[in-house]
């Protein structure tokens, strides 16, 4: 029998026992809906996590360190990176070389130092970090009060919220709600801070121990300086966030920070080695033009003899986590479909019993085993397709309902809306195919049983 | 209405030949000899009646000729096909192309309309949809049921259902019509109507007819030869001279 005839007869048979077949199909639909709901939650959560990470600018950033720095990002990094003997000094020349690599947007030193800030004659010890002007364009400073630096060399400063609380003496006790950032900004914006710092000055005298190290000809002097800074913005940025500020609570424009030649920890370590007038950096942050190129740029930097770290390394772990999550969600989602498949077997076996005589008649007038098998198989497949389509729609509707409900809740908590539910096209097609596949497998036994019916016995059946 | 081509037959050609045909069933320790060493010949175009009381083996014999059942031993050769040697698939093709069957209980599929029931063998034979419509219309015309084509079997009388079953049996233009008690569920008047139709197909289309019946009068009225079975054995064979004379006249 041709496929259109098989389909037509199968659909007609399904219509004949409409209640039972509908219930079976609803069973499949619920199974598929549960699968789709589970997996689309997984996909949505992964997309939300990726979106957050991409928006944070982390996906286009590589942190470059010298192997001479003993602050390796991980044991693996230390294993995979060049040995200290092969490693180069991370100085200005290296920064420029990295900045000229293909697909690199910018490479800037990670200037970070601990120093004292005075506000209304009161000293406050804190960690300061320098920010490039490009930091303005990502979401790091979203929700900031005030404005970003007016220029890259302006004597201006951005404060992290907790430092602003400290300056105003408003540090909330543990467990109590944080003061509003706008309230903190009002008395501080436009006010001046005085930064006390140690400036590194290259002196013409020979080094203290000229026989030490591989370079000679310059040495450092350390002079205490003061710098007035105007507060232009207050941010509620998380101090432990990975991008730029890690641990810092006060931010300076990058060029200004560079021009101050503030003595950093790395200078102390390098002082007995390469005492040139070139600044040496503890780490460099590299921004790539396209996040997709991050691996290639990382490889190129590694070839230059540096150690690299990027969120791509971390996201590998994230992808692995989501792979496991998918598997679990898929297994749980499939359970309902497997239960539904037993329903298909039951429905078709019942249909064989009911249609025993009909099968006998069909065989008597010329139906082959293949025709009978095909008919039952098509009926199972049709239930699978219908159940799959309805199930996907049901799964999508459940997802939408939960999305709407959750966003309603988030709104009531004054939190921004989130889209954490996603039904990608591959899941739609995959779920329908899976449903048809499970249905066909379920239909195999009843179809084979129907095909093997003895026509003489079947015709005697009343 | 177009008339289907007459099946080419020669008076001496053998349509059905069985030799020492047996069909035994085992029921626990007991062996039931439904057909027990039957040897017979049916010529092409012949109208034969298998007669016997209930349990004589006539329906079992018909099932073997129809390819619905396989012999325990012996041979049954129909139109040069040794049915015992055919595969399940080949037997299905044989039932589809060579044999048309009508049953006492009509055996129409209740969920289908008359037209759909009659069309069913054409679907199995993979006949194009456009041709199917014409063939179904012709078949229903032939049995006088065109107006009832969209009715379901339950909406028809017994006679109409049997006529529809006849239309279905003939739709693939078989060489052999096998009828198992075709008038058993009909009143005598309707039974005669149906048998007249069968005789018409036998005469006009040259179709070989084997009819199982326990009504001797019916066999005497229509069959050219009567074969008597008892306890699975062929016990007697009688040519029906009256019918033969009418046929040749």
Could you characterize the architecture of this molecule?
- The complex is a heterodimer of chains A (462) and B (249).
- Chain A is built from 14 helices and 11 strands.
- Chain A has 462 residues and is an alpha+beta fold.
- Chain A folds into 2 domains: 3-54 and 318-460, no CATH class; 111-280, no CATH class.
- Chain A has a 6-stranded mixed beta barrel. Chain A has a 4-stranded antiparallel β-sheet with strand order 2-10-1-11.
- Chain A is elongated and about 115 Å long.
- Mean pLDDT of chain A is 80; it is low at 70-78 and 210-216.
- Chain B is α/β, with parallel strands linked by helices.
- Chain B has 2 domains: 14-98 and 174-248, P-loop containing nucleotide triphosphate hydrolases (Rossmann fold), CATH 3.40.50; 105-173, no CATH class.
- In chain B, the strands form 2 sheets. Chain B has a 6-stranded mixed β-sheet, with helices on both faces.
- The longest helix of chain B has 18 residues, at 188-205.
- Residues 1-5 of chain B have low confidence and may be disordered.
């Amino acid at each position: 029998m041709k496929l259109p005839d098989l389909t037509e007869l199968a659909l007609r048979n399904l219509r004949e026992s409409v209640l039972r077949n509908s219930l079976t199909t609803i069973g499949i639909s619920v199974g598929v809906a549960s699968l789709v709901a589970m997996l689309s939650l997984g996909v949505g959560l992964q997309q939300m996590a990726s979106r957050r990470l991409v928006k944070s600018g982390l996906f286009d950033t590589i942190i470059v360190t010298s192997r001479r720095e003993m602050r390796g990002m991980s044991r693996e990094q230390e294993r995979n990176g060049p040995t200290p003997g092969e490693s180069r000094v991370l100085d200005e020349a290296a920064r420029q070389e990295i900045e000229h690599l293909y697909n690199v947007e910018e490479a800037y030193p990670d200037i970070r130092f601990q120093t004292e800030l005075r506000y209304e004659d009161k000293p406050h010890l804190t960690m300061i970090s320098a920010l490039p002007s490009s930091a303005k364009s990502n979401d790091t400073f979203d929700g900031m009060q005030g404005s970003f630096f007016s220029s890259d060399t302006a004597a201006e400063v951005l404060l992290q919220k907790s430092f602003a609380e400290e300056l105003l003496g408003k540090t909330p006790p543990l467990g109590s709600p944080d003061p509003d950032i706008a309230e903190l900004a009002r008395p501080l914006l436009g006010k001046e801070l005085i930064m006390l710092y140690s400036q590194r000055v290259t002196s013409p005298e020979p080094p203290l121990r000229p026989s030490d190290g591989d370079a000679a000809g310059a040495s450092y002097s350390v002079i205490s300086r003061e710098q007035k800074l105007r507060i232009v913005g207050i941010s509620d940025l998380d101090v432990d966030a990975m991008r730029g500020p890690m641990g810092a609570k006060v931010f300076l424009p990058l060029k200004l920070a560079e021009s101050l030649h503030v003595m950093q920890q790395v200078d102390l370590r390098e002082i007995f080695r390469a005492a040139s007038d070139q600044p040496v950096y503890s780490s460099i942050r590299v921004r790539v033009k396209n996040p997709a190129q991050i691996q290639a740029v990382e490889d190129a930097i590694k070839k230059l003899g540096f150690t690299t770290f990027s969120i791509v390394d971390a996201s590998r772990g994230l992808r692995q986590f989501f792979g496991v999550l998918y598997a679990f969600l898929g297994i749980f989602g499939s359970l309902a479909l497997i239960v539904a498949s037993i329903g298909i077997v039951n429905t078709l076996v019942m249909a064989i019993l009911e249609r025993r005589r009909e099968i006998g008649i069909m065989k008597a007038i010329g139906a082959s085993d293949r025709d009978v098998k095909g008919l039952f198989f098509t009926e199972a497949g049709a239930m699978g397709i219908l159940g799959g389509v309805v199930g996907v729609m049901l799964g999508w509707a459940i997802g939408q309902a939960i999305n709407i409900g959750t966003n309603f809740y988030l709104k009531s908590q004054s939190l921004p809306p989130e889209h954490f539910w996603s039904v990608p096209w591959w899941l739609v097609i995959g779920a329908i195919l899976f449903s048809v596949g499970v249905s066909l497998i379920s239909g195999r036994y009843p179809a084979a049983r129907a095909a093997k019916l003895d026509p003489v016995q079947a015709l005697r059946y009343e | 209405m177009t008339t289907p081509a007459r099946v080419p037959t020669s008076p001496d050609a053998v349509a059905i030949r069985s030799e020492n045909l047996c069909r035994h069933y085992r029921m626990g320790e007991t062996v039931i000899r439904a057909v027990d060493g039957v040897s017979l010949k049916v010529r092409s175009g012949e109208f034969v009646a298998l007669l016997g009381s209930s349990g004589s083996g006539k329906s079992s014999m018909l099932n073997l000729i129809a390819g619905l059942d396989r012999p325990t031993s012996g041979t049954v050769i129909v139109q040069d096909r040794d049915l015992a040697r055919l595969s399940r698939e080949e037997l299905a093709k044989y039932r589809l192309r060579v044999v048309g069957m009508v049953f006492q209980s009509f055996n129409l599929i209740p969920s289908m309309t008359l037209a759909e029931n009659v069309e069913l063998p054409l679907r199995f034979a993979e006949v194009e949809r456009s041709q199917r419509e014409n063939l179904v219309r012709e078949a229903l015309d032939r049995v006088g049921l065109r107006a009832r084509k969209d009715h379901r079997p339950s909406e028809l009388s017994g006679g109409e259902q049997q006529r529809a079953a006849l239309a279905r049996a003939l739709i693939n233009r078989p060489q052999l019509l096998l009828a198992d008690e075709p008038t058993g569920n009909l009143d005598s008047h309707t039974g005669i109507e149906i048998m007249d139709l069968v005789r018409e197909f036998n005469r006009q289309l040259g179709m070989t007819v084997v009819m199982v019946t326990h009504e001797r009068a019916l066999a005497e009225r229509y069959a050219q030869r009567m074969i008597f079975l008892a306890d699975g054995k062929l016990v007697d064979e009688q040519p029906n001279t009256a019918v033969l004379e009418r046929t040749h006249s």
